[in-house]
Amino acid sequence: MDTYAYRFVGDRIQNGGVYDRVSWGEVNTLAPYVPLLESFAKQSGFRAFYRKQQPYYNQLRAEYQKNIDVATMKKWLEKQFPATRYNAVKVIFTPGQTVADLYPAILDWAAQRMARDER
Questions:
Q1: pLDDT in the model for residue 85
Q2: Which candidate among 4, 66, 90, 104 keeps its CA 20 to 30 Å from the CA of 32?
Q3: What CA–CA distances, in Å, run from 29 to 1, 45, 80, 94, 114?
């Protein structure tokens, strides 16, 4: 979940300045891996892949907005927790799998790259 705190700035992955982390823990668990993720994104052409998939992501977003009543969820939260005011609701979802499902593939790629670089 801590990926939500980051943005691409050119080829760099940087904290967006709003959130330090969005997970329940005390530290941002993604921070140590940012340099490897930057390298992965650059070498794999991830940004071009993401742009090419944008119509799919837009379709998912439209379906979510059509089928999920966020306004009713917000009203429920306010009723259940009256001392807390919610002036915004952020919905975070991933298509098909969680970010945690991607970690093993990214870490395998990073380990292979590091082993290759050590030679």
A1: 78
A2: 90
A3: 9, 24, 30, 18, 20
